[in-house]
């Protein structure tokens, strides 16, 4: 299954090569042009008809993870975090390190050796280490190097009522949807951009948008979902199983109302359940895309994910399929000259 392959691949921000090569293999027979820019963004062009807008679809290939910082004399590895990771989820997680995917476990001082005040606090990542079973620094250095990327090891698992547990659903969800979208041809020219380094500051999308200069951009994402116990409903952000989430604004951008309204009209016409994202937390590649050149009109469509930025994110296959169907229906709804020049 495509989403299983994508989520189990390694692609920490700045090291998206494995994911990029996988996507190229999937799309090469369906597009008119493929290029990789200097930052590593993968850009696939599917040509449409004259007079229709050029539409940029964006989904980021990278995921949050870790990087090797140092190796001590006993062979234990200290690390940096890459992207927004809650230190509380790190202890005891299994990881893969470097191109050889050396397996390791994140460890900490045993609880019975901790001071009383340590037991009542979240251990910071600086207090943790990765154990790869090495007995010395020299032995560990034969297997890993400073600067190696570290990916969470987490299997794709389906459970419950069409739910999926996996790492990197943010945003291999979007990558999978764009791959599916590219199998069809539309009146508009589609520039599907699989971006890099979103998790460390939306770094790849802006240069890609500047180069392409699209009429509009639609960002396809995995977004936060807090519909769990002890959370007030206004803070849910989204609800699992209630359909793809549409953004009005977030911490990085304010989305175009005309495009948002067209997406809502399309969802209603096609009987696709949808929801509006209730909070403004976080941001997407729209934050850098909408600032490119003289400004680019943006919209955001996302799949809700519980426990985002962790090895065990959870999504609903119903939301995933609804998001894919809605993006496709929106592209099919666009008329000649619509959205051109704003």
Explain the overall architecture:
By secondary structure, this protein is an alpha+beta fold. Helices cover 24% and strands 26% of the residues. It has 2 domains: 2-63 and 167-333, Zn peptidases (Aminopeptidase); 65-152, Peptidase M42, domain 2 (Elongation Factor Tu (Ef-tu), domain 3), CATH 2.40.30. The chain contains 9 helices and 17 strands. It has an 8-stranded mixed β-sheet with strand order 1-2-12-3-13-16-14-15, with helices on both faces. Strands 5-4-9-6-7-8 form a 6-stranded antiparallel β-sheet. The protein has a 3-stranded antiparallel β-sheet with strand order 10-11-17. The longest helix has 17 residues, at 317-333. The mean pLDDT is 92.
What's the total helix number? 9
Summing up helix and strand content along with how strands pair, one would put the structural category as: alpha+beta
Detail the poorly predicted runs.
Answer: none
The CATH superfamily of the largest domain is identified as Zn peptidases
